Amino acid sequence: MKKSKHQGREVDPKMPKLNVLITGAGGTNGMNVLKALEGKGYNLISGDADELSVGLYMTKRRYIFPKASDVGFIPAVMQVCKFEKIDIIIPTHSADILALSEFTEGFKELGLRMCLSRQEVYILTENKVICSKVLKEMGIYAPKLFDKKVKFPAIVKPISSTGTKNTHRVNNQEELEFHFKDKERMFASEFIEGQEYTIDGLSDLKGKVIATLPITRIEAKGGLCTKGRTIKDKELSDLSKKIAEKFEMVGCWNIQFIRNKKGTYCIDINNRFPSGGLPLAVASGLNMPDLMIKMLMGEKVKVKLEYGLTLLRYWSGIIIDKNHEVIK
Fold first, then answer.
1. Is residue 26 within 8 Å of residue 53, measured between CB atoms?
2. What is the pTM of this model?
3. CATH says 4-114 is which class?
4. Where would I find the H helices in 119-229?
5. 149's torsion region: left (phi>0), alpha (psi -120 to 50) or beta?
6. What fold is seen in the domain 123-127+193-312?
7. Would you place residue 162 in the very low, low, confident or very high pLDDT band (cuts 50, 70, 90)?
8. Domains of the chain, residue spans
9. In angstroms, rounded to a whole number, what is the distance separating the alpha carbons of residues 55 and 47?
10. Tens of pLDDT along 233-281?
11. Which of 127, 199, 312, 323 falls between 20 and 30 A from 243, CA-CA?
12. What counts of helices (H) and strands (E) characterise the chain?
């Protein structure tokens, strides 16, 4: 039987299941990752800063961590990894990813693997102003950044951000002044109208793109895709591959575009799981969490995509008793 070395031990069907720690389990990404890995043969352990995070109750073993910004976060994660004999860590929250990415090589020496980019990649992709400038240098359309005079309607958002938090469309000077209070941390850009798309993608451990999956955003609420459909689109796939490899992103990523008569504009770059569309990606053959684990195990991965699938998102819930045991 052919065996592959993984984190100081050999992996084959006779050996115990891999222990996988999912941090940020209470967020949309965390819950989607846990769902994507159900039934895949891993021992899943969840962690979050909030004891009432839904994702914690999707696993038998769960831990409460300090927030990623707390100095105690890394030591707490390390303690759990040692106790649970963790093989692989999958951070799903942006703050967790940023904190853990600083220690990728150090963790690897301890037998822990993470499919993460270099920390500076996350810092770069979260800085929307710098991203816009890099895109323009690449010859890719991006919304125009306003310096002094703003043309309405416009978009106001934080320079460093994830998702759509504190992102606003402003239609006049009064609205601009209301939302544009911290000029050192905010910026204004051109409002682009057209059809929105998200391209979910996966790159190998060296940053080479393995697969791209374009998705038409039919409906979105709070930045999350609530209705979307997978499509074949060579231009979007080629553009997203070019961007992902330019930014040297490793593992999962998603890039957003708006297309209209003037062209195809890149409006956002994220080196993390797609918050709204991961279930659709998994159903379409791009199970990013599982594929990332397989790459870390040294396996060669192949992706066969299915197009024309549609995501219809809905709310659900978990009921726990006073002892925090799941009853429904």
1. yes
2. 0.91
3. alpha beta
4. 119-126, 128-137, 173-179
5. beta
6. D-amino Acid Aminotransferase; Chain A, domain 1 (3.30.470)
7. low
8. 4-114, 123-127+193-312, 144-190
9. 8
10. 999 999 999 999 999 999 999 999 999 999 999 999 999 999 778 999 9
11. 312
12. 10, 16
